[in-house]
From TrEMBL:
GO terms for molecular function: ATP hydrolysis activity. PANTHER family: ABC TRANSPORTER ABCH.3. This is Nuclease SbcCD subunit C. It comes from Cellulomonas humilata. Keywords: Coiled coil.
Length: 1018
């Protein structure tokens, strides 16, 4: 995959819009990403990873860091990336989720993350002015774009970060990690969790199989106990059955057949016993039915004989009472006739009484009525006179009824008029008070609105004050850091000067010692010559004047020690120089950041900004208080205006109602005066008329009742005369003499009816064929027959009980035997199913006899991947270390507490021939060994992902720990990557790399805080 261009806006420390042209940087194949610490180098890498996967490079960091703290609220945070893969050219544009100010009101709201992607035409020129018009859209949903991008790249985010962005610090940790930690890192990179899950699932299946076997054995034991109980075996037989079943379980093979043999031996005998008992019960039941039939026959005959004797006795008693019954029949007939006439007698007596009462009531009504009503004029009938007088009184009273109600309500209506006039006066006063209150409201509202607008104006500048405070605070912090860094720089300069003095002295000493050694070298050579030995200088075997060895001659060991001292002094000088260089860059960056602003000015700016911010916050609180207060003020005004309008409308209506009420009251008073006439009130006149009407009505009602009573008496007398003749009575006295009480009448009727019923029942009973056909001398033995039936029934019940017990025992034993066989089948199946699973679980979990190295399946897979990584890393490590170092995988446990083997690692030092712990490497050695390991990991991961072409790589910090020779070797290896068609980006601020790599991305913080970006290529 080749990166072609990257555009960021309002991302991290970059407040503006910046574009990185990777096509231009890729012309040389190697570029440098450099800038001070914290300036934004890692932000560019995070932006690339975010554009592709929606997350930043570090798994522990949040995407919230992408939003620039320096960006204005109306500036959108955007990452726009164009990359090329064998499948084509793609463009993806993402925005992170972040908090922005609300467009209306105060506070913030969440701007949601968005994504868009396009597939661009092959060979497209990346012209920013036309880029938005090109390409085929791939969608704008986060999930579908994530799937499309991962499919195009061929790597997930973890693989991408481990192959495209080589994090030196993480691989140094991987190099020095313990096997258990290394296992976790490898598992994360290669995604081998599936093998762990497989082993865990097999282990769980083994446990499930073991539990199933234990459960099946328990169920077999329980079923065996149920068989012993159902068959009601003795303790010896029960022990024998359990032992036989346990023996079959231990044999395992033939388990079901063995158990079946045991249970069949117990159930067959029980089935035979049950069959014999059922046959005996059937025979006993036949004998019982025969005895019962004979008993029923004898019992019926004995009952017929007893009934015949009772009927004959009852018939003799009825014949003796025949005369008494005849007399009762005569009395009953006369009493029933008198009973029919009695209501007529009573009715006539009541009619006579009613007639007498009606006549008395008429006389009383006439006495109570006024004389002009009770005494009619001569020649006028009483009824007609009373009716005419009453009708006149009713008509006059009806005419006055309305005026009575009007007269009664006059005082209340006068009071209502007075109250209405008082209410109208109150409404007028309320309207006047409302006018005064509303008149003062506009001025008060203007004051409140002016205060609110002023608070809003001050609150609106909160963001500006916060930005100013942040900027001023950063300047104060920068000044503090600048003072500390300048102090550290001065100390570092002094240390560098001291190191330079030490290095110069060491160099001079080494030079002097070498010169002294060379000067005394002849004496050293001469001291080792014997007569006859050839001179190593001239070759002569004769030595007439050998040089003399000085007493203070410098040996080779002293020169070597001086050389080592000089090397250490130079290394110390380099370290001091590098520290001075780094501190100088930091001082320059901090001075550039603070500019011309002094520390006092920065402090004053901070205080001013903080005061302004406090004022803005107070204004926000005032807005929060005044806005509801203004709304409440307006609501009160509107409510009072509405109340006044309602009061005015009510006043108008009440005045109209009062005028109508007064006119109606005057008319009513005039009608009352006319209606009372000579009486004091209308009610008095009306009451008199109602009295005359009532008196006339009472007289008419008494006349009608007297006439009705006379008619009823005449009708009753005619009915009695006819009734006496119909029932054979000569007079009313004869009927009264024949009358008896209801109880006597009922008793006579009962006696006569009972005698007739008994006579009929006895005759019918004796005539029945079963009774009439009985022989006169017939006799039966009921007690003997009953005893025989009881004995047969007892024997049948005992035989049935024995058969039922035997049958139930056999059925229960058979059912229990079936449960035992089912449990045996289940146990055999569980044992058969658990065996292969247990063997696989042992093998994949690192146990069992077939796994000699005790490696789990996941560890075995990781060992193979680890060997591939080590092999790929060694191809570069041998070159970078000049053939000195080589990585090897080890099966030894680095820790006695480690659970797995196979992921240990050693560094073979070919100079000493001994393997070393990676943790014993120096800083520079650790860097380039880790780099080789990271590059090897990248090669293996891409091969695992299908041989993906990694066109662009980023190598993180760590170059500062290398000596010049090793740095050249590392750069040469990176050059090999470049020669393979890759573009390598080196992330560093080492000065030597700035001198070696021309193409670069320079990132610099500004005095105001945000960083700027410049691409130098070509």
């Amino acid at each position: 995959m080749h990166l072609r261009s990257l555009t960021v806006q309002a991302i991290g420390p970059f407040a503006g819009r910046h574009t990185v042209d990777f096509d231009a940087l890729g012309q040389s194949g190697l570029f440098l990403l450099e800038g001070p610490t914290g300036s934004g180098k890692s932000t560019l890498i995070d932006a690339i990873v975010f554009a592709l996967y929606g997350k930043v490079a570090s798994s522990e960091a949040s995407e919230e860091r992408l939003r620039s703290a320096y960006a204005a609220d109306d500036v959108e945070s955007v990452v726009d990336l164009v990359f090329e893969v064998p499948a084509g050219v793609y463009r993806v544009r993402r925005t992170p989720a972040y908090q922005r100010a609300k467009r209306r009101g105060s506070g913030t709201t969440t701007a949601n993350a968005t994504v868009k992607a396009w597939r661009l035409p092959a060979g497209v020129e990346l012209d920013p002015s036309t880029l938005d018009t090109l390409g085929v859209p791939l969608g704008n949903r986060l999930d579908e774009i994530g799937t499309e991008i991962q499919k195009a790249v061929g790597l997930d985010r973890t693989q991408f970060v481990q192959t495209i962005v080589l994090p030196q610090g993480e691989f140094a940790h991987f190099l020095r990690a313990k096997p258990e930690e290394r296992r976790g890192l490898l598992q994360e990179i290669f995604g081998t969790e599936v093998y762990d899950r497989l082993a865990q699932r097999l282990a769980e299946m083994r446990r499930e199989g073991d539990r199933a076997c234990v459960t099946a054995r328990a169920e077999l034991a329980s079923a065996s106990s149920q068989l012993v109980g159902a068959a009601r075996l003795t303790s010896e037989d029960a022990a024998e059955v359990r032992a036989a079943i346990d023996a079959a379980v231990l044999r395992s093979e033939g388990l079901v057949a063995g158990v079946q043999t045991v249970v069949a031996a117990r159930t067959d005998g029980l089935l035979r016993l049950a069959e014999t008992a059922r046959a005996a019960a059937t025979t006993a039941e036949e004998a019982r039915r025969h005895a019962r039939a004979l008993l029923d026959q004898v019992t019926a005959t004995d009952a017929l004989l007893t009934r015949r004797s009772a009927l004959r006795t009852e018939r003799a008693a009825l014949d003796a009472a025949a005369d008494t019954n005849a007399e009762a029949v005569l009395r009953l007939t006369a009493a029933r006739a008198a009973q029919a006439v009695r209501p007529l007698l009573v009715g006539l007596e009541r009619a006579e009484t009613a007639l007498d009462g009606a006549r008395k009531a008429l006389r009383a009504a006439l006495d109570a009525a006024p004389e002009d009503i009770a005494v009619p004029p001569a020649g006028t009938a009483l009824r007609a006179h009373v009716q005419a007088t009453g009708r006149v009184a009713v008509e006059e009273a009806a005419a006055l009824a309305r005026l009575v109600d009007v007269e009664a309500g006059l005082e209340a209506r006068r009071r209502t008029v007075r109250d209405a006039r008082h209410a109208i006066d109150d409404l007028v006063a309320a309207i006047t008070a409302d006018d005064v209150w509303l008149g003062a409201r506009p001025a008060a509202r203007t004051t409140l609105l002016t205060e609110l607008e002023a608070a809003r104006t001050r609150a609106a500048r909160r963001a500006d004050h916060e930005a100013a405070l942040a900027s001023a605070s950063e300047l104060v912090a920068a000044h503090r850091e600048l003072v500390a860094t300048e102090t550290s720089l001065a100390a570092a300069v002094e240390a560098r000067a001291a190191a330079a003095t030490v290095a110069t002295a060491a160099l001079d000493r080494e030079r002097d010692l070498r010169a002294a050694r060379i000067a005394g070298l002849a004496g050293e050579i001469a001291a080792g010559l014997d007569d006859g030995d050839p001179c190593p200088v001239c070759g002569s075997a004769v030595h007439p004047a050998k040089a003399v060895l000085d007493a203070d001659h410098v040996s080779a060991e002293r020169v070597d020690r001086a050389e080592a001292d000089r090397a250490r002094a130079e290394a110390g000088l380099r370290e001091a120089a590098e520290r001075c260089s780094g501190l100088t860059e930091r001082v320059d960056a901090l001075r550039s950041r603070v500019g011309q602003v002094t520390a006092d000015d920065a402090g004053q700016r901070t205080a001013v900004a903080r005061g302004a911010l406090d004022e803005a916050r107070a204004a926000e609180a005032a807005v929060a208080r005044l806005a509801p207060a203004l709304d409440g003020f307006d609501a009160q005004t509107h409510d009072r205006e509405t109340e006044r309008s309602a009061t005015v409308a009510r006043l108008t209506g009440d005045r109209s109602v009062l005028e109508v009420t007064v006119l109606d009251l005057d008319a009513s008073e005039a009608g009352v005066v006319a209606g009372r006439g000579e009486h004091p009130t209308v009610a008095a006149r009306h009451a008199e008329l109602l009295g005359r009407s009532a008196a006339a009505a009472e007289v008419l009602e008494a006349l009608a009742e007297e006439e009705a009573a006379q008619d009823e008496w005449q009708r009753r007398r005619d009915e009695l005369t006819q009734g006496l003749a119909d029932h054979g009575f000569d007079s009313a006295g004869a009927a009264r003499s024949a009358t008896v009480d209801a109880e006597v009448l009922a008793e006579l009727d009962r006696i006569v009816t009972a005698y007739a019923s008994a006579l009929d029942r006895v005759a019918v009973g004796l005539a029945e064929p079963a009774v009439a056909e009985l022989a006169e001398d017939l006799a039966v033995d009921l007690d003997g027959t009953r005893s025989a039936e009881t004995l047969a029934r007892t024997r049948a019940e005992e035989a049935a009980g024995e058969a039922r017990v035997a049958t139930e025992r056999a059925a229960a034993a058979t059912a229990a035997a079936d449960e035992v066989l089912a449990a045996a089948v289940a146990l055999a199946g569980a044992v058969e199913a658990a065996g292969p699973v247990a063997r696989l679980a042992d093998l994949t979990g690192g146990g069992g006899g077939d796994n000699a190295r005790s490696l789990s399946l996941a560890t075995f897979v990781l060992v193979r991947r680890f060997e591939d990584v080590v092999a790929a890393a060694n191809e570069r490590l041998l070159l970078m270390s000049d053939g000195r170092y080589e990585l090897v995988r080890s099966d030894e446990k680095e820790d006695v507490r480690a659970r797995n083997t196979g992921l240990a690692m050693r560094v073979v030092d070919h100079v000493t021939g001994q393997p070393r712990d990676p943790r014993t490497l120096s800083g520079g050695e650790t860097f380039y060994v880790s780099l080789c390991l990271a590059l090897g990991m990248a090669d293996v991961v891409t091969a695992e992902a299908g041989g993906i072409d990694l066109g662009t790589l980023f190598v993180d910090e760590g170059f500062g720990s290398l000596d010049p020779h090793t740095l050249d070797t590392v750069l040469a290896e990176l050059g090999r990557l470049r020669a393979g068609g890759r573009v390598v980006g080196v992330v560093s601020h080492v000065e030597a790399l700035k001198q070696s790599i021309a193409d670069r991305i320079e990132i610099r913080p500004t005095a105001a805080g945000p960083s700027t970006l410049m691409v130098r290529a070509g």
